[in-house]
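User: I'll paste a sequence; please echo it back and then give the predicted structure.

Assistant: Echoing your sequence first, then the prediction.
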Amino acid sequence: MSAVRMSPEQELAIALQMGDSAYPTGTFAYSWGLETLIADGSLSRRDLANWAGAELVGRWYGLDRIAHAGGWRAENLQQIEEWDGVIDAHHWSEKQRRHSGEAGAVTLTAARRMELPAAKDISASVAEGRMVGHLAVVTGALHRASGLQLRTSLLMSGLGFLRGQLSVAVRLGKAGALEAQAIIMEFLPEIAKRADPPKPGEWPRSFSPLSDIAQMRPHAMRLFVN
């Protein structure tokens, strides 16, 4: 998908809109295992900062960041479909695979209704079964089509990942809003350092066994999907 040329001010304005916590990305309904860990006592309030840092490195940096960058770098719909297939193969858990596609579908629905560039074509590909439409892949492609540079897009991805994790704790009553913001502030330098675009040929990988297992475990009282 061709990138839109725009001024730095225009790019900043779009980044602020698409990075807003109220922007419908499809992730609001998911805890990615955090709800289960809090519910069974495996994760306490004092562990949140360490948890956030571990997930940022173990999951976002090695998997979501690379998936996102590949979606951004895809120059046409066929390349998006091919890269989505690569990312699909790296989701070893069926629940992870399904939830990533569900969240991507919500993002695409919102993007299509807002008439964002490329949203219609990507949505049609998902509907016709040519790709799953994983959240990180479609977000990267939509960011490029909307005019965001890759590094800006990756910064948004990292911040959105961290904010999403901590918002789960806030909604579950295990952290205050200011407490969550303090943790985000603590990790902003880490996000900035790790938001460099991956090298061509760099493959996705992740190591977050606690959240991986938690996403697959049953838990009766659920506010979130996983």
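The chain is about 65% helix and 0% strand. Residues 48-73 form the longest helix (26 residues).
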